[in-house]
């Protein structure tokens, strides 16, 4: 009995020691980041700064590698109440997670108060001279340079035919290939399109090499920045290095070609970047051009490919929605004037129901679930549930959590339900629908992305269906939400491919 009592006392002592050590470790980040704030720390939102150095990253990764990624934010709500802002430490920095529409709008649109705050690991992968790393002034200049060639009416009219031809060719090819990874093929298609826009007609080998490296790069963007062999971030850094080498060879070859023939017709975005001159007569150097290319080509194919896949899956899971969308596309073809071949921008703008399908897909999937900003001064943000306001201290990150806004049942009843009809007569208020962000740094290729998705769905709805190999396949959520098998299945033709031939 005495031995048993001693063992019990020993176990209690060990347990108490572990609890004390845990409490001590959990206090380290408060000492490091809150103590220096003085009285300002009392106006911080509630939350959890987590463990030393890693913060709450383990909890974040555990949630997003489970079947319920929203459990990460739910844990904050359950512990601290639905206040909308929560302090934490993620990606190596003390941060405030922002989850309400009003607060999201403020952070994204107040450029005097907030600047880009992406983790240093992400900046290293995307490039410190890319859009996410440059100053507001440089961003404004580069955005002005690139927006019209990507999103302007004239540009979209030019790209439409190229996109259309590639979509038709790809669908015909996939229908004859048997079993394919639908998402992988869509990403190849959208990558071919964005590569054509920026680089012109590069070789098939160059495009395939670039696409492979981007796949590896993206797996490291939301991973912990552990630069050790075997970890995603280590592999992503190697992919970044190989991407830069490929782009450098392309840029060098283009500069040599332009030098030999200075009067040659300017063909693509690469030429536009090389011709860009600021008000001081300064041109972009190779590093700046390469970083812009790395970011644009990545963003320009990942979102379009994934959203096209999810829209296809949602349509096939909801037969009534599919029939309404298909009837709209058939009516557009039927009402064409004699002699017209292919789609026009006017017809795409008449796709009212398909536009709702795409918007609902963007909401449910929330391709980019968070963006990063950094407070340039102490900022007080107030709201309905926190009228006195909370402080985001200078130098702290603001993590704008789009996913939480898009799944807010007060804004979108039954938020997990795919329901395009919810957009009937609904004009989303500022901060409530953020698939492409908001403010001056809204995704510059949003119109091009929706154009690609619309053209793909138009031809898919008219002539094809997808037969999935594993309809109940588990999902993964990092770096983006997708079936773990990349949507393995067969594309089947369901009607004659005669739409364009008949026109």
Automatic annotation (TrEMBL):
Q: Which domain of life is it from?
A: Eukaryota
Could you list this entry's UniProt keywords, alphabetically sorted.
Heme, Iron, Membrane, Metal-binding, Monooxygenase, Oxidoreductase, Transmembrane, Transmembrane helix
Look up keyword Phosphoprotein and say if it applies.
Answer: no
Chief place where the protein resides: membrane
The transmembrane segments are 6-25
Compartments, as annotated in UniProt: Membrane
Q: Which PROSITE patterns match?
A: CYTOCHROME_P450
Stated membrane topology is:
Single-pass membrane protein
Q: Which family does it belong to?
A: Belongs to the cytochrome P450 family.
- Name used for this protein in its record: Ent-kaurenoic acid oxidase 1-like isoform X1
Which taxonomic lineage does the organism of this UniProt entry have?
Answer: Eukaryota, Viridiplantae, Streptophyta, Embryophyta, Tracheophyta
